[in-house]
């Protein structure tokens, strides 16, 4: 079976043997604070609530499936990152994890910057009032039109990803009579996933310019020569769903090595270093993510130490968490449609969504947990698999789950930690309508991305 290493990332898929699952939790009604948004709890009737609102009411008002996002939690996590890194560093939220105009406003209010990687994300950011100078534009194949629009809008930085792009951005900036701030994304020969990192000699991937073989140094040479560009720093993003900080340590060591070479060759000390995102979250109770202040402390110490030994001024650090901010803030609320017992095997629980609202299980073998949320139950645990309604046997939401044996059609179940890379990767497979995102805060719920309708589908299909 192929294991893909996508930037939005697998979860140590190779660690557990095929077919392995943990023992059932001691209490099926428990809500592990690690995987649930901050304001989630169970009320006296046994119904799970978020922001003080019972999920049964949310289902009635907004339908299922729905992504339910805890706004207070989102803001708290964004603020925790901002505070942890302080005024001498920048936190760029990676918009690809989940972006909407409400999210852009929250980020703006909480003092975070924003990463975008397409014209669509840029348009969303600008339309919600994110100041252009706080936007960074990423991507390995930005179109000339996208580059043009980004420079015209005045984005704070464009992260250059190839030799062609160095020329493209310089040329476009010059044609607009501007000098564009840029960073160069390099690959440092480190790939990090979850509990391990691999130091590779060659970087066999589409992103960035390899440090190996002097390519990154050559990219810097060219960028420094072009009038349309102001080179402000070096960028490195090493992976996703990372718990082990040692990959960042190696990456920072190599990036600082390049900064030193640049100083020695050109007499220039670049003022910024971007260490990317990729910090892990808890998808199940087995995961132990680090707190933002621990991450900030570790990264700042690594960069400071490396710069001291290279006799460089410590550059301004930026980081780009996506999943670590939005991932834990949302859960997906589903209604159980059918419950099919396969004797001696397991029980298949079919819900009203599936791979169209969460592709990560099929794509990365991602693990999730699931809980009955519309009532408490003291029934025995049953081994279940939560599947969707799509015409595809790989349409699995939660591969191995323990749910109460009295689970029945009409019950609501919820999968926590679906804030990142679920709505943003959602599809219309089988012409299933993409679910809404409902934001809950202080006893009030509102739709921030509405449910797709059949009219939406038919509007695109021009016949
Ligand atoms: C995907 C990505 C991120 C965010 O990754 P998370 O795992 O969501 O933190 C940050 N920076 C870059 C360049 C990325 O491609």
Could you characterize the architecture of this molecule?
With 463 residues, the chain is of the alpha/beta class. The chain has two domains: 10-70 and 328-460, Lyase, Ornithine Decarboxylase, Chain A, domain 1 (Beta Barrel); 138-321, TIM Barrel. It is 28% helix and 26% strand. It is built from twelve helices and 24 strands. Helix 7 packs across helix 8. The longest helix has 21 residues, at 246-266. The relative contact order is 0.17. Pyridoxal-5'-phosphate binds at residues 7-8, 94, 96-97, 115, 138, 237, 240, 276-279, 320-324, 420.
Label this structure with key terms.
24 strands, diaminopimelate decarboxylase activity, alpha/beta, De-COase2_pyr-phos_BS, binds pyridoxal-5'-phosphate, 9-stranded mixed sheet, 12 helices, 2 domains, lysine biosynthesis, 8-stranded parallel beta barrel, 463 residues, TIM Barrel, Diaminopimelate decarboxylase, 26% strand, Lyase, Ornithine Decarboxylase, Chain A, domain 1
- Number of E strands: 24
CATH class of the largest domain: Mainly Beta
- The gyration radius over C-alpha positions equals 23 Å
CATH homology superfamily name of the largest domain: Lyase, Ornithine Decarboxylase, Chain A, domain 1
Uncertain spans: 1-18
């Amino acid at each position: 079976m192929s294991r893909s290493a996508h930037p939005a990332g697998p979860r140590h898929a190779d660690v557990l043997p095929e077919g392995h699952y943990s023992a059932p939790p001691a209490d099926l009604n428990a809500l592990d604070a690690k995987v649930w948004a901050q304001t989630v709890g169970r009320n006296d009737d046994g119904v799970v609530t978020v922001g003080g609102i019972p999920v049964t009411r949310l289902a009635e008002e907004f339908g299922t499936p729905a992504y339910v996002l805890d706004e207070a939690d989102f803001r708290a996590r964004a603020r925790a990152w901002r505070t942890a890194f302080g005024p001498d560093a920048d936190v760029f939220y990676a918009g690809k994890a989940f972006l909407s105009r409400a999210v852009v406003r929250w980020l703006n209010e909480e003092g975070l910057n924003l990463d975008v990687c397409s014209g669509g994300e840029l348009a969303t950011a600008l339309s919600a009032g994110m100041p252009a100078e706080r936007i960074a534009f990423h991507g390995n194949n930005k179109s000339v039109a996208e580059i043009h629009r980004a420079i015209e809008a005045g984005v704070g930085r464009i992260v250059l990803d190839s030799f062609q792009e160095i020329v493209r951005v310089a040329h476009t900036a010059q044609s607009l009579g501007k000098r564009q701030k840029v960073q160069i994304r390099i690959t440092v020969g480190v790939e990090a996933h979850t509990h391990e990192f691999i130091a590779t000699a060659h970087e066999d991937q589409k992103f960035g310019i390899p440090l190996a073989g002097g390519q990154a140094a050559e990219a810097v040479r060219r960028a420094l020569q072009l009038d349309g560009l102001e080179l402000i720093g070096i960028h490195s993003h090493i992976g996703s769903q990372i718990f082990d900080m040692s990959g960042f340590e190696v990456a920072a060591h190599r990036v600082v090595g390049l900064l030193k070479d640049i100083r020695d060759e050109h007499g220039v000390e670049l003022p910024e270093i971007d260490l990317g995102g990729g910090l892990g979250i808890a998808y199940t109770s087995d995961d132990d993510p680090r707190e933002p202040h621990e991450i900030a402390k570790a990264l700042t110490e690594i960069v400071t130490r490396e710069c001291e030994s290279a006799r460089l001024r410590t550059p301004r650090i930026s980081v780009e968490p996506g999943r670590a901010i939005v991932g834990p803030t949302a859960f997906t609320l589903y209604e159980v449609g059918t419950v099919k017992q396969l004797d001696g095997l397991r029980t298949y629980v079919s819900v009203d969504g599936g791979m169209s609202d969460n592709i990560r299980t099929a794509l990365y073998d991602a693990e999730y947990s699931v809980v009955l949320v519309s009532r408490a139950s003291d029934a025995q645990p049953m081994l279940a698999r939560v599947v969707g309604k799509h015409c595809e046997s790989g349409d699995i939401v939660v591969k191995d789950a323990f749910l109460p044996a009295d689970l029945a059609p009409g019950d609501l179940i919820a999968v926590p930690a679906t804030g990142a890379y679920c709505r943003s990767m959602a599809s219309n497979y089988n012409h299933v309508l993409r679910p809404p995102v409902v934001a809950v805060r202080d006893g009030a719920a509102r739709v921030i991305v509405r449910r797709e309708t059949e009219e939406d589908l038919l509007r695109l299909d021009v016949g």
